[in-house]
Design brief:
This protein is 25% helix and 27% strand. By secondary structure, it is an alpha/beta fold. The chain has two domains: 197 residues, Alpha-Beta Complex (Quinone Oxidoreductase, Chain A, domain 1), CATH 3.90.180; 131 residues, Rossmann fold (3-Layer(aba) Sandwich). Strands 3, 4, 5, 8, 9, 16 and 17 form a seven-stranded mixed β-sheet that branches. Strands 12-11-10-13-14-15 form a six-stranded parallel β-sheet. Strands 1-2 form a two-stranded antiparallel sheet. Strand 1 and strand 2 form a beta hairpin. Helix 3 runs parallel beside helix 4.
Length: 333
């Protein structure tokens, strides 16, 4: 039996829950959970904001742990190895997308917390293909958020061939943005943090921003016209996107990794006249996660985390709900 914390209804409190996972599938591994980050996606799924949560619901897709058992077909891992598991727990491995290495875009990809039970538990199972070995130099106590937040902001650097000479801005200095600043600085970019919070300005500089632009200051935004090659939006709220597009250089790109639910109100002419682009991306493939972890280890990059014991999971979720986390929360006994 696997011991976990589950909600029985939308928005319900997480409570002790046990389930029988059955025999271990031939291509799967079982991970003994050491820690698990809490992501805003866990909260959205808990509240069924996206409409496909199944109850009982066990959150948790930023898992760090050790291999406890391997399926008969698994040759890539052995018992005792420390690994991580992120948003996806499996792929079809046969479609053109998977065969091209873009597993994260597989139409049949299996979310770790949808249609199966996640990592707020003592054990979790996943397809071996979706699991990534934790390299030396990564702090396991804070590594969980790298498997969702970290790869979410790192993947665009690979996908869009961001150059070390690029001028990049980040919208939102929170759970995603604070990691993005570190990655971009180490990548070699000139980094600007967009924020309206006075309290975050110095921290943005400490995290790697070379400049901070106050987004509540319309004159400052206007003065930045044509400045940025790439803007990474990590927020999930509606903003004046046309004001940000105006700060893009020719051929610049506004890229979304924060899931704002409102439709984008975009003027097309500035896109056409400057050949600018708008795009979005999800988490990365296992290969991209491996690259991200190696880069983080080489540059000593890690998320800023607060730690709660698993038994206080509801307190931790409430802190996230209230927007008080600085900047990620990790459950660890």
């Amino acid at each position: 039996m696997i011991k976990a914390y589950a909600a029985m209804e939308a928005g319900g409190e997480l409570q002790p829950f046990e389930y029988d996972p059955g025999p271990l599938a031939q291509d799967d591994v079982e991970i003994a959970v050491e820690s698990c980050g809490i992501c805003h996606s866990d909260l959205s799924m808990l509240n069924n904001e996206w409409g496909f949560t199944e109850y009982p619901f066990v959150p948790g897709h930023e898992v760090i742990g050790s291999i406890a058992a391997v399926g008969d077909n698994v040759t890539t891992f052995s018992v005792g190895q420390r690994v991580g598991l992120g948003w996806h727990a499996g792929y079809c491995n046969t479609c053109p997308t998977c065969l091209d290495g873009d597993h994260n875009l597989c139409a049949s990809a299996q979310p770790t917390i949808a249609g199966r039970h996640g990592g707020f538990a003592d054990k979790v199972r996943a397809q071996a293909t979706a699991v990534v070995l934790l390299p030396e130099g990564i702090n396991p106590d804070s590594a969980g958020p790298l498997f969702c937040a970290g790869i979410t902001v790192f993947n665009p650097l690979l996908e869009f061939d961001i150059k070390p000479t690029s001028k990049v801005a980040v919208i939102g200095i929170g759970g995603l943005g604070h990691i993005a600043l570190q990655f971009l600085n180490a990548w070699g970019c000139h980094v600007t943090a967009f924020t309206s919070s006075d309290s975050k300005k110095q921290q943005a500089l400490d995290l790697g921003a070379h400049a901070v632009l106050d987004t509540s200051d319309g004159d400052a935004l206007a003065a930045a016209a044509g400045s940025f090659d790439f803007i990474l939006s990590t927020v999930n709220v509606k903003l004046d996107w046309n004001a940000y597009i105006a700060t893009l250089a020719v051929k610049g790109r506004l890229h979304f990794v924060g899931a704002t639910l409102e439709p984008l109100d975009i003027a097309v002419f500035p896109l056409i006249s400057g050949q600018r682009s708008i795009s979005g991306s999800p988490v990365g493939s296992p290969g991209a996660i491996k690259t991200m972890l190696e880069f983080a280890a080489a540059h000593r990059i890690e998320p800023m985390t607060e730690t709660f014991p698993f038994a206080k999971v509801n307190e931790a979720m409430q802190r996230l709900t209230e927007g008080q986390a600085k900047y990620r929360i990790v459950l660890k006994d």
